[in-house]
What does this fold into?
Amino acid sequence: MRERRRPGPAGGGSRARRARGGPGGRPRGRGDDRARWRAEATPTAVFADAAWDPTGRWSADDLAPLEVADVFTPNETEALHYTRADSAAEAARLLAERVPVVVVTRGRDGVIACAGGDPFALPALEVPVVDTTGAGDAFTAGLVWARLHGLGLRAAVSLASATAAATLGRPGGSLNAPALVQVAALVRATPLPDGFDAEFLDLIGDGAIPDAPTKT
It folds into this structure.
C-alpha cells in the first residue's frame, strides 16, 4: 500500500489521504487507524483506488489495505476481477463489506455507488469526447472535494462525474483539470441524467467557492 499525505487547507478542516492497493500491497497501520484518524483535531479521510494486477491472480488478500480506507474507487474491471461478481452492482455491494463507501467507475456507463445498503447507479453526463486522459483523476478530485465539504454520497458522486465530464471535451491530462466554476457551467448547460444531484451548485454559486472543508 502506498500512501500520500496531503496537508489540510488553511484554516483547518479535514484532510484526505489517497491510498493505492494492489498486488503485493502492505497495509500501514491497523484496523483501528481509521477511527483514530477520524478522531484527530484535523480529521483525515482515506480514499483508495486499485491497480491492475499483471499476475492475473486478483487475490482478495490484496484488498487488506482497505481496512484503513473510507472510500474505495476501483473501475468496473478491477471490481469484477477482485470480487468474482457477475455485475458491477454486486461487486460494489461485496466491496462495501470491507470499506464504508465504494464507488465503481464504469466509463461511459457512469458509476455504481454503495455505502452499506443497496447500490445505486448514476449514468454519465452525455458530453462530446475528445480525450479521456485524466478523467479518472478528475473524478477522484471531485469526489474528494465533495466529501470533504460535507456532501452526501449521491451529490458527491454527481459532482465527481461532472468533474470528469468537464475534462473530456479537449485534449490534455492534468493540465486539463477543470476549475469548479467550469464544472458548474457544464452542469447548468447540460441535460442531467436521472438521479443526478446538483446540490453542489449551492456551494459553488457564481464563483463563490468555500475555502475550508466542512468538519465531519
User: Anything to note?
Assistant: The chain has a mean pLDDT of 83. Residues 70 and 179 are 25 Å apart (CA to CA).
